[in-house]
Amino acid sequence: MKYLTEKEEKHLLKTVSEVKGKKAERDWMILFLGFNTGLRCSELVGLNVADVRGRDKLYVRPETAKRSKTRMIPLSKKLVSAIRNFIKLKLTWREGIQDDAPLFISKRGNRLSKRQFEEAFECWCLRAGLTRYNAGEKKALYTVHSMRHSFAKRLLQRGYSIQHVQKLLGHSSLASTGIYTEVDDEELQEAVNAL
């Protein structure tokens, strides 16, 4: 399972923020939200304005959640501010901001689909140079799910318990959360260097 380092995450967000236009603004917001909440791709694109408006918590509705359960995710002040600014942008773009309006819209005016966001994520990774080669073809090094993995990994690296991560990710079992606890070579090196 691949996750982005903090440096890669910042570089990806910076790459997107340096591009002007509605699509880049939307993609930056969905990336920032994904990296800071650990939401699944389907949960991100399934968000409505009411799910995030004027709150310091985000509610994942049963119809968008994997196990059809509502869950609450606290939001940082930085994320709340970014969401407020994004909703103001939606107004200037003449996109709906009523409670049941999709938070993320495609260029055709419909709710952004999971596939559309996966393609956008891949394009941004390529643009940011986060790439690998597969059979001679340049591919994105990460997938949309890497944002979720990065979120979980960051929490664990900062000393939060696996139970915190389990609750935030909406896992019913600790075994599901356990995949995010795998240790990589860099972490092993840091551990022995700390002795």
Notes on the protein architecture:
With 195 residues, this protein is mainly alpha-helical. It has one domain (6-186): hpI Integrase, Chain A, CATH 1.10.443. 50% of the residues lie in helices and 8% in strands. The protein has nine helices and four strands. The chain has helices at residues 6-17, 22-37, 41-45, 77-92, 114-127, 145-157, 162-169, 174-178, 185-193, and strands spanning 57-60, 71-74, 131-134, 137-140. The strands form two sheets. It has a two-stranded antiparallel sheet with strand order 1-2. It has a two-stranded antiparallel ribbon with strand order 3-4. β3 and β4 (137-140) form a beta hairpin. α2 packs across α6 (145-157). The protein is globular and about 55 Å long. The two termini are 28 Å apart.
Produce the secondary structure layout.
Blueprint: H1 6-17, H2 22-37, H3 41-45, E1 57-60, E2 71-74, H4 77-92, H5 114-127, E3 131-134, E4 137-140, H6 145-157, H7 162-169, H8 174-178, H9 185-193
Antiparallel strand pairs: 1-2, 3-4
Helix pairs in contact: 1-2, 2-4, 2-6, 6-7
Supply database-style keywords:
195 residues, mainly alpha, hpI Integrase, Chain A, two-stranded antiparallel ribbon, 9 helices, 8% strand
